[in-house]
Write a structure and sequence with these properties.
C2_domain_sf, transmembrane, 687 residues, five-stranded antiparallel sheet, alpha+beta, calcium ion binding, disordered N terminus, single chain
């Protein structure tokens, strides 16, 4: 069909904002026309043949592809040696300024002295759709060749907004649109503000391949927001039990992309399946369970998605700051007051920043001026001001608000110089812990360098207001590497393994993996707690020793221990002999890092307990005093038997009421909120 007169669709985004991405310049089934005609089944070496242009080649080529846009080379593929049907398996992307341009592809045969031309093709960029992968089959042409069929190239192209091409934060690239040359585009300004939170709970995998060694993990992506789960050892039913959050932006419809990957070794990675979830039909405040099949024979993935409205983020002029309105201020105070502190424990607090001005910034242009703008980060959330051109003393006079997810977060303000298409230059940075904020007071902070190690030129003036629930505070899910945990378990003695198996057996009773076993354990627990007396403890140990005496064959203990050692240690020694020097070095590094992280965790727990009693964080120490007072009163008036009984009933019924609940330890979660000695130094350094 003739496409010369085809009406070109309007570009959905400004050309400056678009990026052409080849998700897989995966030239699968790429076919080049062989320049030699031979009969099928001929196994004898083919003699050189004469080709147009006067050069001699054999029956194969060493092809590679060059991509050109606006007369400039933008990408060159690798060379596939001696192949007329090459498979490159490459991916690349590059920024696009004008959708009316045409992308040219030229195929060459690498030679020692010169590269021989094998054909070319092209396609206009306006035929591509935004965020849609389009497969293409491009026939190669050579006007100087007598052959009509020069072969084809098969590729996929997508016009989208990506992080990879610019090698920098694409979020800053988005914000650059409305901050360009101090013109505030309020439509794009609203694109920063999120109106909801997608909460994704990764539960488990089912019927996955249970063979070989390696790790399995899951990647989630919503637009430019990306997270990755922890690594688990390959097994049939891996249990992640992790929670992730993504912001839902105004007037943006994005899907949730889920990718399950398996990693064997340092460089071998295999994709087990890719899922695409439509989030536009997700109901509000309703947990949706997804059980999706992966690639054939790769099992299923189970996860939950919940959309929760969020109205705390906003950007406005300083004269329209939300908390300056007396009615809004009273509503917020009432919302986070003591009377309603237990209504919504997930709503931690509200932060308002009045960003007034910056003074005496360093100059970056030849004219002695800069084009500054400021970004504000709180946890995983980020907002940005507009750009003010040609000044060293910008006055933004902007009010920005954040919903607080953790009262112990640190607000980070970074001042950048807008350098056009290049990466922005950092002019200075300030970090302010939320617990150190004095409401309503205008403060001026000296700017520091990018890693906050020393002061730089300039200062920033702002005013902060923090309102938060005095009872609720956010906690992090405990994270650990089960692969390292399993490796350490195999190296301990038999008694440690017996304790671990016993704890796992008790946990399986709490999780109701076997209904009959859980019911029996529940009845035994209730009867034992109700009738418990102190003399029953040595009696139980005596019965356990007698049970082992009559049911364990002499010599089996040492035999089983030797069996464990032979199974888990000897193969590893044989494998280590086959590994090279670099593999051994990496293995030693992993062990050293594991020991280092373990020592750091133990030291942090001890220092956090000490700092709780030292009133390093008065709010947390006061909260600990309140909890200890309530615990003292409860133990004084309520018998311990009843407290243990209530705790046990709660543990047994928790999985019945909420089967996808994430396990946590309240005491460790509280201690994680208390800073260690190292974190105390950092917080004081921020101040």
């Amino acid at each position: 069909t003739d496409t010369t007169s085809e009406k070109r669709p309007a570009s959905p985004l400004p050309p400056f904002f678009t990026v052409l991405h080849f998700p897989s310049v995966n030239f699968r089934r790429h076919r080049f026309q062989s320049r030699r005609r031979s009969s099928p089944g001929c196994l004898s070496p083919s003699p050189p043949v004469k080709l147009p242009g006067g050069f001699l080649v054999s029956g194969t080529s060493d092809p590679f592809v060059k991509f050109k846009l606006d007369g400039k080379n933008i990408y060159k593929s690798k060379v596939v040696n001696k192949n007329l049907n090459p498979i490159w398996n490459e991916s690349f992307s590059f920024p696009v300024r004008d959708l009316d341009q045409t992308l040219h592809l030229k195929v060459y045969d690498r030679d020692l002295r010169s590269n021989d031309f094998m054909g070319s093709s092209s396609f206009p960029l306006y035929k591509l759709d935004l965020d849609r992968i389009i497969p293409m089959t491009l026939p190669l042409e050579d006007p100087n060749s007598e052959e009509s069929d020069m072969g084809v190239i098969i590729l996929e192209a997508c016009l989208s907004i990506r992080e990879e091409p610019a090698k920098r934060n694409v979020w800053l690239l988005k914000m650059h649109l409305f901050s360009r040359k101090s013109r505030v585009n309020f439509c794009l300004w609203l694109n920063q503000v999120w109106t909801g939170i997608y909460t994704v709970i990764l539960v488990e995998g089912q019927n996955m391949p249970d063979c070989g060694q390696g790790d399995v993990y899951v990647r989630f992506r919503v637009g430019e927001q990306r997270v990755r789960s922890k690594n688990l050892c390959i097994k049939a039913n891996p249990q992640w039990r992790e929670s992730f959050e993504f912001n839902q932006f105004q007037d943006v419809q994005e899907n949730l992309a889920v990718e399950v990957c398996c990693k064997r070794g340092r460089k071998s990675e295999e994709c087990w399946g890719v899922l695409d979830i439509d989030l536009t039909r997700l109901p509000v405040n309703q947990r949706q369970l997804y059980t999706h099949e992966l690639d054939p024979n790769k099992g299923r993935l189970v996860f939950l998605v919940t959309l929760t409205p969020c109205s705390g983020a906003s950007i406005s002029d300083i004269q329209s700051a939300p908390l300056d309105n007396p009615t809004t201020f009273e509503e917020m105070q009432e919302k986070y007051g003591l009377m309603k502190c237990l209504w919504d424990l997930k709503d931690v607090g509200y932060l308002q920043i009045k960003l007034i001005k910056a003074t005496d910034l360093p100059s970056t242009d030849l004219s002695g001026k800069s084009d500054p703008f400021c970004t504000l980060e709180l946890g995983n959330s980020k907002l940005q001001t507009h750009t003010i051109s040609k000044t060293l003393n910008p006055e933004w006079r902007t009010a920005l608000t954040f919903p607080i997810k953790d009262i112990h977060d640190v607000l980070v303000l970074t001042v950048y110089h807008d350098d056009g298409d290049k990466a922005p230059d950092v002019l200075g940075k300030v970090a302010i812990p939320l617990l150190t904020v004095s409401n309503g007071q205008q403060i001026t902070r000296t700017l520091k360098n990018n890693n906050l190690s020393r002061t730089t030129k300039g200062s920033i003036t702002l005013e902060l207001n923090v309102l938060y629930n005095p009872v609720s505070f956010a906690v992090d899910n405990p994270k650990f590497n089960k692969k390292l945990l399993a490796r350490n378990i195999y190296r301990v003695r038999k008694i440690s393994m017996a304790i671990l198996y016993t704890l796992q057996y008790i946990k399986s009773c709490f999780n109701w993996e076997n209904t009959r076993r859980s019911i029996t354990a529940f009845l035994i627990f209730v009867v034992a707690v109700w009738l418990w007396e102190l003399f029953m403890l040595p009696l139980f140990l005596l019965l356990l020793i007698g049970w082992n005496y009559f049911h364990i064959t002499p010599g089996m203990a040492s035999y089983s221990q030797d069996l464990v050692i032979s199974v888990f240690f000897f193969p590893s020694l044989q494998e280590s002999e086959k590994k090279g020097l670099m593999e051994k070095i990496h293995m030693v590094q992993e062990i050293v890092l594991t020991v280092q992280n373990t020592l750091d965790e133990v030291a942090c727990i001890g220092e956090r307990v000490k700092n709780t009693f030292n009133w390093s964080v008065p709010f947390l120490s006061f909260l600990a005093c309140l909890v200890l007072f309530l615990a003292t009163a409860a133990l004084y008036y309520i018998p311990l038997r009843y407290i243990v009984l209530v705790w046990g009933v709660n543990k047994f019924t928790k999985k019945l009421f909420n089967p996808y609940a994430i396990d946590n330890n309240e005491i460790l979660d509280f201690l994680k909120r208390v800073p260690s000695d190292v974190q105390k130094v950092r917080v004081q350094f921020y101040i």
